[in-house]
Amino acid sequence: MNLRDYITEVPNFPEKGVSFKDITPLLEDPQGFALAADQLLDFTEGLHIDKVVGIESRGFFFAPLLAHRLNAGFIPARKPGKLPRKIHSQEYELEYGTDALEIHQASISEGDRVLIHDDVLATGGTARAMCDLIDNLGGVVVQCNFLIELSFLNGRDKLEGVPLKSLIIY
């Protein structure tokens, strides 16, 4: 079974010139979904992980499942204004402007070993922001993992020094 067969490319979405990688066919197929989850879990073999951070929004598909299987806590990293309690925030640069990610203040404790999961590694800005936030809170990023990596956008460069795994690389 080739996971790439479950990814549908949608040309010119969300804007002209972008070829969007739609993962919903993978999520809709029980065998494909299970295989992807198992392979993402394999990436963590031998690692002690206390918390799994899933980055909004498509990082939420696999991160809670990984946390459950690793007997770790799940932390949703949200866009600003979505979390109800006191938060820690990390701003990052976009092509045109800035954005931010937030987690609850009580989510990370000193020394927590953290796996960061997102669906796609593109330019690396979002993952870098989350790594910086975890580091600033005293957590230890043990790995970033991704369902898809768009290698032509060089996102790995922003994550130099962080162990990184991707299931499907374009």
UniProtKB/TrEMBL annotation:
Domain of life of the organism encoding this protein: Bacteria
Compartments where found: Cytoplasm
Catalytic reaction equation(s): AMP + diphosphate = 5-phospho-alpha-D-ribose 1-diphosphate + adenine
GO terms, molecular function: adenine phosphoribosyltransferase activity
Source organism of the structure: Robiginitalea aurantiaca
Keyword Repeat attributed: no
Family matches, as Gene3D superfamilies: 3.40.50.2020
This protein's UniProt keywords: Cytoplasm, Glycosyltransferase, Purine salvage, Transferase
Enzyme kind, highest EC tier: transferase
HAMAP family linked: Aden_phosphoribosyltr (MF_00004)
Enzyme Commission number: 2.4.2.7
Subunit structure: Homodimer.
Any Pfam family: Pribosyltran
Family: Belongs to the purine/pyrimidine phosphoribosyltransferase family.
Functional description taken from the UniProt entry: Catalyzes a salvage reaction resulting in the formation of AMP, that is energically less costly than de novo synthesis.
Phosphoribosyltransferase domain span: 45-147
Name of the featured protein: Adenine phosphoribosyltransferase
Pathway: Purine metabolism; AMP biosynthesis via salvage pathway; AMP from adenine: step 1/1
